Amino acid sequence: MRFFVPLFILFLHAFGAASPDISDLNETQLDTLLKPDFSPGDNNNTTPAQEEERKKQQRLFERAEEAYRVGSYYEAVDKLGSLVKNPESDYFIPALLLSGKIYLKIGSKTGVQKYLWTAIAYLNLYMGRVDSPEWEYYYIKGMVYENLDFPERAEVFYKKAIETATTKKETAKGLVGLMRIAVWKRKIDLPTKYLILENIQMLKTSAAVEYDFIRGMNQFLKKNYEKALHFFQRTYRNNEHYLIDNPDYYLLVAESAYRDKKYQIAEHFFRRIIAVVKSSDVMQKALMRMGDLAWRQGNMKSAANYYFLVAKKFPDTDLATVAKLKLIYLAKNDLKITDELMALDEEAFSDPEHYVTLSLVKNRTNFVGRYALANFGEMALGLNTTLLDERLSWEISLIGTSRLDFEQREYIKALWKPRILSLAPERICVLYPANSAFFKTVFDRSVLMHISQALNRCGSYEARLDLLRFIAQRWHTDEDLLLLSSFLFDEEKYADAVQALQGVQSKGCAYAKLAAKSKVMRQQDIAPEQKLLQTCADDDTVATMLKAYYRLRHGASEAATQFAMNHLDFLENEYSKQRTGHRFVKELILVLLHDKQYAKAQQILLPMTKVIKDNCFLNSMVLLSSIRTGNGEQVEAQAGRLGACNTDWAAIAMRVYESYSLSQRAEKR
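Given the sequence above, the corresponding structure tokens read:
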């Protein structure tokens, strides 16, 4: 076994920097492989030659440490080459730990994961040679796993780093790593929460730069981009090297400015990233965002240049495909871009429809497919064909909203919004039910309001109600709440209509009318709305009726009667809709009959019964008032209309009519 270990170290050294195949081994396999009992030789009786060799190794290690400190990572790897091949060396174990740190830096800077796995391999080898790993082992391994996007594993090692820390600085570093993981995972267990709270003052002083960055991360994930940018800029000003060493973090800084529509600041950050960052993955994303920035600001030529640069410089990547898809869309709206792309003699631009469809089919399950869907949808929406609408509906139905990131939503919205706003309602009613969550996630209020109007035209009332509820909850504007309340009122959901109004901040005439109408239908007092109704215009008939209704309920029937006399056409329309006017008429007529004002009741009712001929209540009231006024001709006409009625008021009216008929026959005899 002693013979095997040096061979393994030689293998690691030979392939670690260039192509670390050791990463193919998992931790369990490495631990099993590297756990043999090994103890270095007795160094008490060293010869001068051995002592000279030891000093040489010491100098190599110190030079490697210095190269690491100044950022010359490949030089540091070279200096450590002979040390990590020699398990007999006093610097073998420290060299393993330092190699893990170096490959972490190389991997995080370049974005190449094989270097991060090489770091894991060195750290596992280090773990196999020591009885009690020092704090740095756990911290570095946590950082490696964080960079590899294994937050659960990283969390374990950061917690262990905190347990083994011997200084405040070490504790602070472990806590910062743990906080980053907690922010990304969007959850934190109770012990960790208390641990962080107990040390919050120390973090503010001992790890101020990283603490500010984490606060920015937290605001970014909450979509508070302005606040996020505030904290990120402090990190940038105080320690840009922190961002350069962690290029994915630098992207967050630039992205927060972009999403906050601070485009000049965003451009500065993206240009800076392109200038100083070595990670090809981060470089691609920054170049793509520079194209997006140019697009947002109307510079299509510049946008096309950036997208073309991504496609040319990183030809075999997913982002190259995305860049081509964006170029295809830009070319549709710019002949100069079209001519330049056609000159390239590439399939993506010579047959764009085929390229888009093929990209969608081949990448339906990954993020490229969502960009291809944007292009395909834009083409389909521009053509009025049932076949394409059905195909697009099917594609939409497959999309899980949790898989849509900000950039994809932004791209789909940019391409589809103009199309949807000009789309016929019947086409919207085919597409929207395929995946309502998709539309709610991607589109802004103006598009969703347009969709709600289309759903109303199609008679999709439940879908429209659901959408209006969503709009009101998401944007929570007074206009949205009033629209939702109005729709609920029309659907005779009066309690819900009142509830929807609770969040209205500016309570004016529109609010007062909706609240009062809903309460009238529930036979509730509208006294709280009376003052607000006074803010309505004098020619607002609905508001005037509601004020008359209030006075009627409080004993002032004259005003209500006068309103009815002056607005018979309006009341006739309201009554036929079974709305507030219906309630007003019924209560007014009952009050007039109770007060024996039969002539006034007839004056209001007769014009309405000529139009609403089969209404049992109206005809019953006309019959009763006609009997009381002695209008025999009208009595007989109205009695004939009640034959099919089976209501309480019709029964009462017919009994009164029978008594009236008997008395009339008796008088004639």
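The two ends are 135 Å apart (CA to CA). Try to locate this feature in the token string yourself.
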